[in-house]
Amino acid sequence: MLSITDNFLYVIDSEGRQQLFDVDKLKSSLQEAFDSSGNSNGYLAEDIACAVEAAMAESFRSERIFTQSEVDAAVTRILENAGYANVAQVFRRSNSHLYITLDANKSDATSLIIRHLGVQEPLAEKLAEKVVDSLRQLNISSASPALYLELARYYEHRTLPTAPPLPASENTTGSKLLLSSAEITRLLPENLKELYQEKIITISNISRLYPNFRLSLNLAKLAEKQNLTAPVTELQLAPALYEAGEKTGMFLNILCEHLQVDTLPLYLVLTKLDIFAGRYLGTTYPDGRLTALEMASLFRNALAYPVKKVRCRTSSEYRKAD
Fold it and tell me: Which of 26, 220, 242, 299 has its Cβ near the most Cβ atoms within 10 Å?
């Protein structure tokens, strides 16, 4: 069974509430920041969101819990380091919050650290003491829960890791991309061109900001190519899925060799699943999601390439992503 994600990530918002990290929400905020600042490089929004998510997932923390201010700071840092200071400013302004505050005292800080960071006494008390001392040295008598937690993380020496280093590559696409979609198309082997032309398989631009493969698989188009009708079974679609997976996996390795890297993180996007569910499974979405994931497992296994994350998208979500 092909799971959507292996690990859950949590974010503590400005009011101290713990919520699941939503990478698509972050991507939308970034896209709006690019658009509002008049910057045409909004296609990087997903790469930045993926870079932040990957850094969170690869953290050494025993629990994947982060403050919203940590996430915002990571996004701002990535934008500024990439030369998008104006976008960073718009993002920071658009995502600022009205913070509730707590008095700078050791007791409240200790309780907050224990509740949200999973740190027990006496370490929690030591961290709280350092946090409160720091605030007092700055003449801050009260602060948001997020600031308490961010300072505690700092003193615990477990800050949010940075994005992985960028690989070197001799490319002709300028500083923004390692490979453009056009260059990827030119590198396509003959045995994959038909699937690519029919948009059964697509691979997005590979940026320098967070090099990764975003590979889209359209199960509906693949079923259409096989002239299948509802209800489609796993057995009927299996040969085409295995063939497509093997060819695509070999191509990913060709791209890695071209970029002079061993591997890049792979995000597998199952697109327009509502159409596949309605037209070929004889059901609706999300009811048909489990069956679609099981079928996609055949493609995944044939890839013989590690998948970092699987995303499911409906036709409307896919249009927004584009």
Answer: 299
Whole-angstrom distance, CA of residue 119 vs CA of residue 62: 10
Which residue in this structure is represented by tokens 């505050």? 101
Q: pLDDT digits over 274-312, tens only?
A: 999 999 999 999 898 999 999 999 999 999 999 999 989
Tell me the per-residue pLDDT of 154-163, one tens digit each, with 9 for 90 and over. 776 544 444 4
Q: Structure tokens of 90?
A: 């718009």
Which pair of tokens denotes residue 95? 């995502």
Closest CA to 160 of 221, 73, 87: 73
DSSP states of 45-82: HHHHHHHHHHHHHT---SS-EEEHHHHHHHHHHHHHHT
Residue with tokens 């079928």: 295
**CA distances in angstroms from 166 to 51, 178, 186, 259, listed in the order given:** 11, 10, 23, 11
- If one counts every other C-beta atom within 10 angstroms of the C-beta of residue 11, the result is 23
β-sheet bridge partners, residue 201: 217
Count CB neighbours of 252 within 10 A.
18
Quote the pTM value: 0.71
Give the separation between CA 284 and CA 273, rounded to whole angstroms: 9
CA-CA distance, 237 to 232, in Å (whole number)? Answer: 7
Q: What is the full DSSP assignment across 244-313?
A: HHHHHHHHHHHHHHHHT-S---EEEEE--HHHHHHHHSSS-TTTTHHHHHHHHHHHHHHH-S---EEEE-
